[in-house]
Structure formats: structure tokens, C-alpha cells
Hints:
- By secondary structure, the chain is mainly α.
- It is 57% helix and 0% strand.
- Helix 5 runs parallel beside helix 9 and helix 6 packs antiparallel against helix 8.
- 39% of the residues are buried.
Amino acid sequence: MIARRTLLAGGTALFAVGLTGCEHNESDTKTTPLISPTPSVAPQRRDAVSQEIFLAQLATKAAATVTGDRKVMYQRVAAAHRLHYQVLSQADPFSGNTATPTPSVSPTPMAAGKGAPTSELQTHEKNAAAQYLSNCQAAQNPSESLLWASLSVFCSAVGPNAPAPRPTPKVVPITIGQEPVVNAQQALLTHLNALVAGLEWGIGRLDEGHALRTWGQQRRDQVIAQRAKVRQTIRDASATPTPDVAGYPMSTVPANAAATRSLWSSLEGNVLSGWGRVAAASPSSQRSNAVSAMIAQTKYLAYLEAGVTTWPGWV
């Protein structure tokens, strides 16, 4: 399997071409100061900077109105939105900087309604998810496509009964190169093959009638059907699908229901990332399907009591 980060900086060497051969007069440099141009920031990103800090504020208010696990959930949602803001407000959101940078883009204050903080947050999360999906479809390169897809998926996964997001402070967006869609689909297929194998491993170790076993059997049938569609898409592109290798190595043999749940959530997360890779590689008209598949994965993760990461799809 090819990790997402093997694709970073795939075409950066090309940008060095053409930077030599620019002549200048030495006297000109003495009389005319050289001014570094301020990088332009697209309106979509400026709006997202304001949106993310606003969502962080709403989540913080929501956390103050609840207790227990729900408080923790909203606190983590707020923390994730602050991390989104930190990345989006950088001059280069794909710098890979995991420290706390000095923001280059300032947020514009946004006003909340007068409803309950939890309801207000849910409304604005839904609106943000829709806007980010639109941004994803309009993106001009793979890095931007996955950035907006990831934000849309995160916002879609926030809900009053959702598991708390999983903090991933060392994972941030980076520059990725363009790859053929069929390559991304092959990587996704590998994850689907592994998920089928993992589901079967777990099913065989759970007692008959166990709720998780029943869910796993239903989920296996869904994944097999989805895998067949991906295989056909690859064949339609005149490529040979990645074979289903018997005996996928698992990190651990699930000894009980808790271990099975952990194994399945890990494999479902890999499939989510696989769909993220497809979203990054796809043309505009096909990205929404991949994002919808990513969002569907968050529901399977939620059943397994696993929340989304700070940047779903980035690994």
C-alpha cells in the first residue's frame, strides 16, 4: 500500500526551472528596494479562516452547556477547528508546519444566532460542510481538493451524539502531486480488500448472536458490493484491479469484542483515507462522489465508537 505522504512534493522540482537568466542592473538594486510580493489569498480561504475560528468559538460555548463525554466531544471539536484555523491562516497552508505559526490571514468576526449553542453549532457545521464541498469541486490542484474535502468531512461528522474527534497534532496538509485516478482507485481497492479480510477475521471470533458480529456480517456484504464497483471502474479504465490477496497481515488477532472493534475501526479509517486519495486525484465532476464516500465512512467509524481525525483523509 502506498502511503499518502509518499506523494508529497511530487512536482516541486519543476518550479526551479526558469528562475535563472533574469538580468538586473546593480545600480537599480541600490536605488530601488526589492519588495517581496504578498502572496494572494483566495476568497474561499479567507472565508474559511473566519468560519473555522467561529466554529471553534461555538463549540467552546456548546461544551460549557453539557457535561461528561459530550463536554469532551465539544472541547475536541473546538480544538480541531482551532487547528484548522492555524493551517488555513498561514501564508502557505501546505507548508507541513505542525507548530503554532503566526497567522498571515486574519478572521472576520461572525455573529451567531440566538439559539442554543449546540443547535447553533450544528447549523453552522452543516453549512460549512456544504461550502467546503463546493470549494473542493472548484479546487485547481490535488492539495486543495483534499484540503476542502477533509474539512467538509470533518464538519459533516460533528453531531450531538458523535464520538469525540481523535486529535492528530502531527498530521497536517502538505503539497501533494497529481496522480492518475486509476492509481488512487487501486490503492483504495487494496484497503477494501484488507477491510473484507479484517471483517471476516473478527466475525469468526465473535459469539453467534453478538450485536457486533451481526453488524460485521452486514458490513462485509456492503464492502464486497462496493469493492465490486471499484473493480469495475478500474476495468473500465483498461487497467487490471489489484488482486485480493489471501491472508492480509493484521496488526493483531482480535481476541475479544473490544479488539475486534479496534481492528475494524482502523481498517475503516484506512478506507476513508483511500477515498480521500481518490477525491484528490479526481476531476471536479467526480469529487463529490468520493467525498460522499468519505462521509459514509465516518458513520461506520461512529458505530465502532471511533471519531474522525483532525484532518480526515490525510495520513
